[in-house]
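**Protein record**
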Amino acid sequence: MAHARWGQEFRRWEKAPDHPVCEVDIEADALLRKRLSAIDPEAGWLSEETADSAERLTRVRVWVVDPIDGTRDYLRGRPGWAVSIALVEGGRPLIGVLDAPARGEHWRAGAGLGATRNGEPIHVSGRSTIEGARVPADVLPRSDGDLVPVFKPNSIALRIAMVAAGEADLLATLRWGHEWDIAAAALIAQEAGATVTDALGHPLRYNSTRGEAFGVLATTPGIHALAVERLRSRAEKASVR
């Protein structure tokens, strides 16, 4: 449905400054909630386009959904957007689905079952040195001049998935963000062999009270500790609210 409407005319607005949304986001959210609730009617719901409710904290399992991750690319007619779906239990994703129909990519992962793209198994690269690590970025700070920028889709989930597929070696965000942005892609990356934590190197847990996490750091296993150390001072400063 979202792919069919992509590039067409539809209503769009800002739900907050610099936070665009469109009617397709809302329609996709409603469609996903109907379909996913039929699959697991006992699961709670946490989605970017649904008003949050503390009731989800009482549920054993929770759907964590971003109907369109990368809305800016969707609105601009660019392909760097995806539909992100995770089913979480006990704070950890059980399954992750990331569909990027404009790119012809369909990502899947199950806890302990590995990860695939278009049905083919994927795995992280074997990089063990941080110098020369590929990072999805438009530009890099001067202090990271030894890293290599590669193409960056607007969707943070797709950027994490690039690490999973061995198309990037490091992805980092140093700001508070929402669980629906990362839950599915983080499982896909972990099942592909990546190490995924928050920006400070701490384990990620989902269905938290705020539904937020401080950043995400997804890397090949060989450079994760080096990346945590490199980013530590920046991350500690940015984490203060």
In short: The chain has two domains: 2-121, 134-239. The two ends are 38 Å apart (CA to CA). The CA atoms of residues 199 and 215 lie 5 Å apart. DSSP finds six helices and 14 strands in the chain.
